[in-house]
TrEMBL record:
Gene3D superfamilies: 2,3-Dihydroxybiphenyl 1,2-Dioxygenase, domain 1. InterPro entries: Glyas_Bleomycin-R_OHBP_Dase, Glyas_Fos-R_dOase_dom, VOC_core. Residues 5-119 form the VOC domain. It comes from Marinobacterium aestuarii. Pfam families: Glyoxalase (PF00903). This is Glyoxalase.
Length: 126
């Protein structure tokens, strides 16, 4: 039977060291391993492969297309407070949405955006 065990996202970055540091220090990821111009990072079962690609268009220049992941989670308020304390760049403040999710978003130094969401009861006004 098919089952998703984890997700792994591949991101092109111009400054591998700076990007890796942000994911580790601000977003709480851990290093799985490094090889060549790649850093393999994880936050639970959410995995990211950062690839050193100095000639690619920066994610920040793709505007809304720089969103690359939506993470459904539990404990979103704790995570939001942790990210605020760590100095992560919040691009969307935490709020309850009428579609039944409590959400917030972060952005990396190169402009990659991640949304986090936790299930709540949908708004009756939706």
């Amino acid at each position: 039977m098919f089952k998703v065990k984890a997700t792994q996202h591949v991101l092109a970055v111009k400054d591998l060291e700076k990007s890796e540091s942000y994911f580790l220090d601000k977003l709480g990821f851990a290093v799985r391993f490094r090889v060549g111009g790649w850093s393999f990072l994880s936050l639970g079962s959410f995995h990211v492969m950062l690839g050193h690609c100095p000639d690619e268009v920066p994610a920040r220049e793709t505007h809304n297309h720089s969103y690359f992941a939506y993470i459904n989670c539990d404990g979103i308020d704790d995570l939001y407070r942790d990210y605020q304390q760590r100095g992560a760049e919040i691009c969307q403040a935490i709020s309850d949405k009428p579609w039944g999710l409590r959400e917030f978003g972060v952005i990396t130094p190169e402009g990659h955006r991640i949304m986090f969401g936790e299930d709540i009861e949908p708004s009756e006004n939706a």
